[in-house]
């Protein structure tokens, strides 16, 4: 069997331009409430941009299965809205000041309104998903949301502590890969695809999501604030050990481990500067280790598509993992 | 048609003893998670008691329609869990220290965990409700939850401000009466009752819920902390004007209005003592006015049952409004 050739950014964008624009309109329509402050917060979050990678996956999944119904637009907006709801609550929990280079919603509106705005966005996602009249779609979305919430709670319990790789992968599955997986599964579900195909596309999403989050975590350690739109090494400042850090902890000297432990416990670089941590990570090849892991998951994602017949959408799905692992923000 | 005689507390309790015990067990089963802190918070909330009036209404509604299936237990636990989820988020928003005479969950676990525990309880309610495989049940629950969340947001916007009766009734409908209504409707929905009956039972619930909340708001003004399990006049301390206060504002002298306005704006009794406010309310008969309104809604609730055939459950439903309006906590 001939290996499908891989698309490029322009090709993928051209392929989805109209659909992504429709998702934006649908998101705006869905997030308008008679309670003004909800619409305000939702519009603010919508205008803040974001990669829209979850709707993109759902659209490509549906398209690869030749599904053209309106459900793909509606559910594309639903997965982005669900993602937005988690961000609103996560920012409260992390007491984040900025998100995507702007004040976070909790900074702008206060915690109380944002607890409720997050609740509203969750409920509205389900409300819109209800329009599908499809129990499988609802099962996927509700189980997913619960998994994400549990992940965030597990993360809180592990803050400031040294975790191992297994715990890390469980956390990033819940935090990111589970929604990537469900976005792909939803595309298959509305196309009425066989369970096996839905499973393969879901696995693609899961592996891609793991790759995506590993890269995100590396960028958090290495990028500039101006590129990230939030302070550098936010994860360490919040007491979160990510893959490269876990790698260095397992290989470092006693002194190096102590330096990392100090930053995690202090949740600041007051006693150990950021550049010391970076030097430790570089010395042990920990950043490369993490990037290699991300690329390996990206490759597994591609392999999950083997049974899918060739199409423009398939070529786009083959392109996404490389895009995700080579991005700089 | 002979008017049904009305039950008494013992009769109602005997009628529902087994079902209410089953709802407790179901609630405990539903709220156990592999994430330990969720189970801890849920058990704490469960042990805190509460009147269980929402499951009671659902059980009576189903029973009055001769429905005996397991759905009544499952959904009885769902409406209590949904109610609990709103309490967890409300306590964060109100920065409440105590609830039902114990530290509130946000005091005990902190806001971050409670944002997520509330989210989890919402999702779990829906997850369990999904087992019914009944879109109408899900529509009722999801619309309801959104209405409650919007109500809480509207309330925040009105804090410290003078509101009118119309705004007050909209708020207490969203906050309390909407869930009372849906509890009754769910009992009818699982019994597969005609839309008309479901509507009448829903109206019973709505009117009862309005009566319930009006009484709650009066008790907040007049009761002792030891009876309420939370500080006296919490509503005024949080900047919330309730029915008796709105009545006095419309009838009071300039000086009296100013006193009330000061407490609402200060959110404290530092400049105007609690007893001054109570004296104003008593002078204008405002507490009686509110209690009369509650009794009128209770009477409308009873009248909503006219078409329902006589049964033990109906007699219990006729008893509930009197119980709600004569309680002291």
TrEMBL record, chains A, B:
<dbReference type="GO" id="GO:0046872">
    <property type="term" value="F:metal ion binding"/>
</dbReference>
<keyword id="KW-0479">Metal-binding</keyword>
<protein>
    <submittedName>
        <fullName>Polyprenyl synthetase</fullName>
    </submittedName>
</protein>
<dbReference type="InterPro" id="IPR008949">
    <property type="entry name" value="Isoprenoid_synthase_dom_sf"/>
</dbReference>
<dbReference type="GO" id="GO:0004659">
    <property type="term" value="F:prenyltransferase activity"/>
</dbReference>
<dbReference type="InterPro" id="IPR000092">
    <property type="entry name" value="Polyprenyl_synt"/>
</dbReference>
<dbReference type="GO" id="GO:0008299">
    <property type="term" value="P:isoprenoid biosynthetic process"/>
</dbReference>
<keyword id="KW-0460">Magnesium</keyword>
<dbReference type="Pfam" id="PF00348">
    <property type="entry name" value="polyprenyl_synt"/>
</dbReference>
<keyword id="KW-0808">Transferase</keyword>
<comment type="similarity">
    <text>Belongs to the FPP/GGPP synthase family.</text>
</comment>
<dbReference type="InterPro" id="IPR033749">
    <property type="entry name" value="Polyprenyl_synt_CS"/>
</dbReference>
């Amino acid at each position: 069997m001939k290996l499908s050739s891989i698309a490029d950014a322009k090709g993928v964008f051209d392929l989805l331009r109209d659909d992504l624009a429709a998702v934006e309109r649908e998101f705006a329509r869905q997030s308008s409430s008679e309670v003004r402050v909800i619409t305000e917060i939702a519009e603010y979050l919508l205008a803040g941009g974001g990669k829209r990678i979850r709707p993109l996956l759902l659209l490509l999944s549906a398209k690869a299965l030749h599904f053209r119904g309106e459900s793909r637009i509606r559910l594309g907006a639903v997965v982005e809205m669900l993602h937005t709801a988690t961000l609103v609550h996560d920012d409260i929990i992390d007491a984040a000041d900025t998100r995507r280079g702007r004040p976070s919603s909790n900074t702008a509106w206060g915690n109380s309104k944002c607890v409720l705005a997050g609740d509203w966005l969750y409920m509205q996602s389900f409300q819109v998903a209800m329009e599908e009249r499809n129990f499988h779609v609802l099962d996927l979305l509700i189980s997913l949301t619960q998994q994400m919430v549990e992940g965030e709670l597990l993360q809180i319990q592990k803050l400031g502590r040294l975790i191992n790789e297994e715990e890390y992968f469980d956390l990033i599955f819940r935090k990111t890969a589970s929604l990537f997986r469900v976005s792909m599964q939803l595309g298959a579900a509305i196309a009425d695809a066989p369970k096996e195909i839905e499973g393969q596309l879901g696995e693609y999403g899961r592996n891609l999501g793991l790759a995506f989050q590993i890269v995100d975590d590396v960028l958090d350690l290495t990028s500039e604030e101006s590129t990230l739109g939030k302070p550098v090494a936010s994860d360490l400042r919040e007491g979160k050990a990510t893959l490269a850090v876990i790698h260095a902890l397992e290989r470092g000297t006693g002194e190096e481990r102590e330096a990392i432990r100090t930053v995690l416990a202090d949740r600041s670089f007051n006693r150990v500067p950021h550049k010391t941590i970076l030097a430790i990570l570089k010395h042990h090849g920990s950043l490369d280790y993490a990037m290699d892991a991300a690329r390996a998951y990206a490759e597994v994602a591609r392999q999950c598509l083997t049974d899918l017949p060739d199409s423009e959408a398939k070529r786009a799905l083959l392109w996404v993992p490389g895009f995700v692992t080579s991005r700089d923000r």
